[in-house]
Design brief:
By secondary structure, the protein is of the alpha/beta class. It has 13 helices and twelve strands.
């Protein structure tokens, strides 16, 4: 929740792999709804259809109109959810998982517009679609609606600039020129060296230059390819969809998070990886990205409480900046496991 995505690049660069991976993660949460409007004829989303609320495919006028109607409905929905947020959340500034569980009308929703240039460049619907997209995006994130825009043609005409400006997570796979690059990542990015024009088509498949995934100016990331190739007898997608359907159909009224109880120390260690230390600010953001359902509302104070409880203590560098030490987290987990074993021995 509280994010949206712009994904672009030339054909075959890996756009669909990233989006499919995002959706496979989303549908494993039984309270999430997913709609996909694909303004082309392709089969990328077909395996997910059992778990999708809506799947529209095609580039005929009626298919483009369906995407426009979806934006119209979202415009009304973000307003209605905003009013509900005031009623249910009191002082809450955005939808939390707790609120989403309390009222089905606030359940997280992911809406994909693939080949969105077909919508924005449509002679009859394009202007209205651009205006609606901007209106919806400015309100959607705080009311648990995630928009995912996907395009092979990121230009000023095919992608409204204000849509890019209001996108939190921007992804550029291999692109042909600086115009396409800045259409995805933002004005002036190519000039300062944040560019995907150096990615090699056919070689850097799945690799993208991104903005917004962390507090860094940019990052190069690689999308995982969840493979589905019937000709080779490989299908890694369908088992995930089947598992998602089992969770969805077996959930009934969802009155508790579908996630296991989080272990902050283990999650901190996961985020640190092999880094000997990281700034506390980066760790807080990393936890939020790792498990937004658990850590979405976390601040430095919450992290400090966990660190104090485990005996981590203050850890500052010469510049006086607070850091989290990997070794101290490892030691804390080891001490905890030792205490658990002592307790078990005492009970025996």
């Amino acid at each position: 929740m509280a994010s949206n995505y712009m994904v672009g690049g030339i054909m075959g660069s890996g756009k669909s792999s990233l989006v499919i991976a995002l959706l496979l993660g989303a549908i494993l949460d039984p309270i999430v709804e997913v709609e996909a409007y694909v303004m082309a004829y392709n089969v990328d989303y077909d395996p997910l259809k059992p778990r999708l609320k809506t799947l529209v495919k095609g580039d005929d006028d009626e298919d483009i109109k369906a995407a426009l109607d979806a934006l119209r409905a979202l415009r009304d929905e973000v307003s209605a959810r905003g009013k509900l947020l005031e009623e249910l959340g009191g002082d809450a500034v955005k939808v939390t998982r707790e609120l989403a569980l309390k009222d089905p009308r606030m359940r997280p929703k992911v809406v994909v517009f693939d080949e969105c240039h077909e919508l924005f460049m449509h002679k009859e619907y394009g202007k209205e679609a651009a205006e609606l997209a901007i209106k919806v995006m400015k309100k959607a994130r705080k009311v648990a609606i995630t928009l995912v825009w996907v395009t092979v043609s990121p230009t000023a005409d095919s992608l409204p600039r204000d849509v890019t400006r209001n996108t939190s997570h921007r992804v550029a796979f291999a692109v042909g020129d600086h115009v396409a690059n800045d259409g995805l990542l933002g004005s002036g990015k190519h000039k300062v060296g944040i560019t995907a024009t150096t990615l090699i088509p056919g070689e850097d498949v799945g690799t993208a230059v991104t903005v917004g995934f962390s507090n860094k100016p940019f990052e190069v990331v690689r999308a995982h390819y969840v493979e589905r190739n019937p000709d080779k007898g490989i299908d890694e997608v369908t088992p995930v969809v089947e598992r998602a359907m089992g969770l969805y159909e077996g959930a009934g009224p969802v009155d508790a998070p579908a996630f296991a109880v989080a272990d902050p120390l283990a999650d901190i260690l996961t985020f640190l990886g092999q880094q000997p230390k990281l700034r506390t600010q980066d760790v807080v953001h990393g936890l939020i990205d790792l498990n937004p359902g658990q850590y979405g509302e976390w601040s430095f104070r919450d992290l400090r409480r966990v660190l104090d409880d485990c005996g981590h203590g203050e850890y500052k560098t010469g510049g006086g900046v607070m850091h989290v030490s990997r070794q101290r987290i490892v030691d804390a987990i080891a001490d905890r496991e030792g205490d658990d074993q002592d307790d078990a021995d005492d009970e025996f």
